């Protein structure tokens, strides 16, 4: 009995020992398995997948170090190769998002996943504005993109890519520059003329400009130019699709943006009263011309909505302008405030829509825009050869410019040739001026400069002259003191330049054609106002737009987050409203944004070690 008990106890001991050994082995196996699979599991891979991944990555890093060393020795070699490789690595790494833990088993080590993980992070750019500037910025962003992106593109208008200037339906609205200067893409000024020569361009020109003979010097209808812009937009969207760049188009008004705790921007946009939020890494502001400044008399007007047109590009309510002006009798009068290019457009629209009465256009000087003629390019002269040597006092500059124009005339050159020769150096000349000189220019010389610089097509001038000659259009230099309204219409009180007494006109319609507002603080633009209130942008010292940093981004709480383009930069650059300047500027802004995104990726790469 005792012997059997001893034997049983011995068996039990042996079994216990074996069981302990088995447990230890199981634990050891578990620990071993954990050591080899726990981390790979976190990236959603098996051991072998992870091993294969790290081998591939180290091969890439090895290649990069060889390429870098070679580049160091021979700087002309592999100038982009390293950054391209880093970008690719970045995308691969970003795709390795931790997955929820999966049940472990050694057998899984040998199981290969069939599909690689999808990259989940793509950088996002917000673009506000679908006019020329917004569209060309998107075009350049798509063409220069180094990685797949998401572009959230917002515009309030109906036809994306055309903006205020080119969405006109009137054939009488012509471009104010020759066809061979209106190319939209940077470095290709003749692009529009070449498009007119293409099969596509010929078809559209035959439809929209039947009487026109396209030539490099011709002034085409803006409606036709809009088709050209739309063809660039469509091509851009196709390229984007082929490159994995997602362009999300929103017909909505961007109203606000605020900084998130990750340093991104949370953007709010509104469509028909519904709000939606979007997060972007970088924002481009291409909001274009702001509506004209409002007069003090405006809010008190009884019939303000229908008889007073505060912004001819966006007439509000049930007003006669532009399509019902033919209902006005032949003895009705219309008063236009302003005598610039906007006035010219509105006069042509009034006549096209059958208005039979007279028009009085009033501005301080009563100056009409100058007219284009065929001119020879002016040879290089002192300022264009070396703008840094030009004087930095505007009245001395004016004197020297007049002298140069006289000299040019003596050699057979038109004054326009000299003015146009300044175009490539205007921004440089402007930046050299002190704030006091800039202010003097804006208050004393801006209008004079604008009418010489922004000219009208000869065909348009012929029509305007003929309306002046037959008494339909009266241009009056003077000052408007008051616009009052009663049940029958409006009364405009004004004083002619040099006269002592006030005169009045009974007007059926008054159109505000004073041109765009530049001061964002005085404008009603909600997004710009909110960005300013949040200190994400700031008004420049001339109150003519947004102030910028060296990189071209808006000065504000966070640099290199918001990039303005177009007329928002008048204070900083002076010349940034017409196509020749905008086509280069949009390219520069797209490059700055692309560079910024690259910097952001590189910062991310530095913190990616933990993922491997
Ligand atoms: C009537 C007119 C004729 C012109 N003709 C010529 C010409 O012949 N040649 C030339 O070189 N230049 C011309 N110009 C100059 C013109 O300013 C530029 O050529 C160019 O069209 C400006 O484009 P933009 O995109 O900067 O602005 P815009 O055309 O004003 O476009 C801005 C867009 O942004 C949208 N937007 C603004 N805020 C928001 C928001 N918060 N949310 C969503 N969308 C928003 C607007 O609705 C608009 O569609 C003309 C300008 C005007 C006004």
Structure, explained:
The relative contact order is 0.11. Helix content is about 45%, strand content about 15%. It has 20 helices and 15 strands. A hairpin with a 2-residue loop joins strand 5 and strand 6. Helix 2 packs antiparallel against helix 3, helix 5 runs parallel beside helix 9 and helix 7 crosses helix 8. By secondary structure, the protein is of the alpha/beta class. The structure holds flavin-adenine dinucleotide. Flavin-adenine dinucleotide (FAD) binds next to helix 5, strand 2, helix 6, strand 4 and helix 20.
SSE layout and pairing:
Layout: H1 2-42, H2 47-73, H3 81-94, H4 106-109, E1 123-128, H5 132-144, E2 149-155, H6 163-166, H7 191-197, H8 199-208, H9 222-242, E3 246-251, E4 253-259, E5 265-271, E6 274-280, E7 282-285, H10 304-307, E8 308-309, E9 333-337, H11 341-352, E10 358-363, H12 382-385, H13 394-410, H14 415-421, H15 426-432, H16 435-453, H17 458-469, E11 473-486, E12 489-496, E13 503-507, E14 509-512, H18 526-533, E15 562-564, H19 570-573, H20 579-606
The protein binds flavin-adenine dinucleotide (FAD).
Write a brief caption for the model.
This protein is an alpha/beta fold and 612 residues long. Helix content is 43%, strand content 15%.
Helical proportion, percent range = 40-55%
How many individual helices?
Answer: 20
Structural class: alpha/beta
Bound molecules: flavin-adenine dinucleotide
Beta percentage is: 5-15%
Low-confidence stretches: 94-120
Per the CATH scheme, the topology name of the largest domain is FAD/NAD(P)-binding domain
Question: What is the quaternary state of this protein?
Answer: single chain
Q: What is the residue-mean pLDDT, rounded to a whole number?
A: 89
- Within CATH, the superfamily of the largest domain carries the name FAD/NAD(P)-binding domain
Q: What is the domain tally?
A: 4
* CATH C-level class of the largest domain: Alpha Beta
Q: Using only CA atoms, what is the Rg?
A: 33 Å
Shape: elongated
Strand order of the largest sheet: 8-14-9-10-11-12-13
Q: Which CATH architecture of the largest domain would you pick?
A: 3-Layer(bba) Sandwich
Number of strands: 15
Give a short account of the largest sheet.
7 strands, mixed
N→C terminal distance: 65 Å
